[in-house]
């Protein structure tokens, strides 16, 4: 529960000196070891509150009873087929969600592992659509310090808290380790994709330790950003008068989360593949230099019957500070028994002189080259384009991560610097903007090397790489890499079972290097310092609506989140738009049951934008969402037209515009069926037929109607630029008539009513009422309405939906009655939607209301991210109620904070958009030069009307 002071105390700055002593910051002020000035911060001993999930009211439960019964039946039916329902409100996690999250590991689309701010590795999403929330407690960093010839020793796991069962005399598990860290003098600092943990004299008062976590999330870099790896750089500063021997230990369990480590038959040995099932291979590594000695323990167990127990391993490190060098030559371990766990360890030891400094680097990498979806199709992940499909890739990934992490950091700092140095921006906004990007890694992202299934491609497309040792080659860095590779959990996602696993050791000495082997005109090695992949073919990209709503690329939500991809990875954004453009022209006549009413319909209607790209067979079986028939939703088609035009205008990609133009026309034409009275304005049908899928709309809707107006204007502008003047004229005529009707039916003098019906909430103030205007202004098009109407509506939203909710410290409630009471018509009308709040703030920025915009968005930070808030950092939910109960953690829509950044830094193409109203411009006579360009582009558009070569089955 949020403390009362949260709504009265407005903190503008979170300087690192409040968390780390200034003297320690000065000692660490080299090699990026000190935490940044702008970051999200927590003390490691902070209380991790249990989060509270939402519940429906009695009246809402009555209304939803029939839906609930049908949903229960559907969930059970899917489970009987070995599948997971895309929405399962009855599922309860064994691990209760808590305020413990931190920056996740790795790049995009190759599986993710989150890491809590206290150091635990949790939220495993290696297998698509599967999230194991519980931490694997054996995965830890630990430190061992010896001074005064061994008379003064410290040994501790570098994470606070106590393990279950600690203190039992016969315990052979990890509770026998030294869980001594209080966390009182240790702090966590997050600025995605990096994080810093500072141990300010813990456990040794005379040793300052900085652990820097780095992942390769690098905008516009479509190669490194796909890599499943992360680096941990430890910086040690000895403030004592005597030298200290310091050993850092990295332990890792043979597990992909949940109970997978207990399934048995896990073996630590090289490169064993599971028959026809996607393998998962882990590698943990440390960088060996002239000053750092690396040793390994290939295998230890967590049970008393293990040959080497966790207690034995810990005792060895306490006594010696390292393992035996002979372990590099050890063979494969015996397979683990069911209920037992195999773990491995890498130790890096060094001497730190009095007042001296030392750096030790570790890496973790995982390789799961093939993605297999529930209904059988499999794909190769994006990173295999550069590393091949061998499970050995994890070893190479770890090696290259340790070699190249400094370059990654340089690129990350160059990207973030303009925002962090902008004195006009509030500090909370700077680091929240970057930290909300966690979702692109931890939100169940899949990035394939192509949209075609792996079985449909030739055998040579993913040829394994060749690596050669070259002792005689010149090596730029005089350091080797010691790698422990663990092939774990060959997991069959169709059956939900884990198969046999193995682990191996591999070592690169100080005089060896990795060099690429030339084959013809191509290199097949792993030179990550090479040029980026600049082709337009960036493969297939999927990301979940949320970890609780398992649907890929949910389009009504992508409408809000897409600004992040457009700004940072525009080729991925265009790729997603192409996927939906192809889908528009296709039809899937298979029957499906819609749970809200119990009626049946076809899965995908030609001309309608799909709600999502599917769940168990993405790209081929769309519309996994089955509560309502989304072919009757009124927002999806306008959102497609608006996103396409924004992307087209921002990128200036003429070929993209021509390719998707037939789909834009089809999407506009499809909407004619919803104009019931031929006034050119669409009407809603008295049920929740838009993204607010429990909030009923009657007649003309401010939300859907506004989107429709904006789509007509965008389609007219795009038609003009692509040479389709007839279509431009048609859209113009519709727009003029529809706008007149829209204003006459909804404008009440200060804002646009929720809808034109006569229900109790028809005059409600909807936060999202100007969503169409948001996209219009974002795309460089003239405003939909005059300035007074826009500013008056935004002022009403700010004064009522924002400031009347806990003084503006929670975000904007979706619906508010004009008497100042929250609209409690349904669950969603009374909720605060994080992504919608950011979108409203972006609209305010575009209207010149910057102060109101940042106050509005700050409510999401205060309630969700601040130290006094509800604890939703790095797991921002879809919504919360005014008492702080969440719905749907780790959700896509909050990425819309990048819509604010888009509004603050509009690209040149948008800023230089024509100032003349596009509708007036359609009537102007055109120069011969402009007419020539129109004609040539129109020919391109005509050539791509049929998209029969797509993965969809076109019905042209």
TrEMBL record:
Xref: SUPFAM superfamilies: Six-hairpin glycosidases
UniProt-recorded name of the protein: Non-lysosomal glucosylceramidase
Known role: Non-lysosomal glucosylceramidase that catalyzes the hydrolysis of glucosylceramide (GlcCer) to free glucose and ceramide.
Domain Glycosyl-hydrolase family 116 N-terminal residue range list: 102-408
Region Disordered, residue ranges: 86-107
GO biological processes: carbohydrate metabolic process; glucosylceramide catabolic process
Keyword Nucleotide-binding: no
GO MF annotation terms: beta-glucosidase activity; glucosylceramidase activity
Organism, scientific name: Rhododendron griersonianum
Catalytic activity: a beta-D-glucosyl-(1<->1')-N-acylsphing-4-enine + H2O = an N-acylsphing-4-enine + D-glucose
Family annotation (PANTHER family): BILE ACID BETA-GLUCOSIDASE-RELATED (PTHR12654), NON-LYSOSOMAL GLUCOSYLCERAMIDASE (PTHR12654:SF0)
Domain of life: Eukaryota
Stretches assigned to the Glycosyl-hydrolase family 116 catalytic region domain: 539-900
EC number: 3.2.1.45
Family listed: Belongs to the non-lysosomal glucosylceramidase family.
Keyword hit for tRNA processing: no
Pfam families attached to this UniProt entry: DUF608 (PF04685), Glyco_hydr_116N (PF12215)
GO CC annotation: membrane
UniProt keywords, alphabetically: Glycosidase, Hydrolase, Lipid metabolism, Membrane
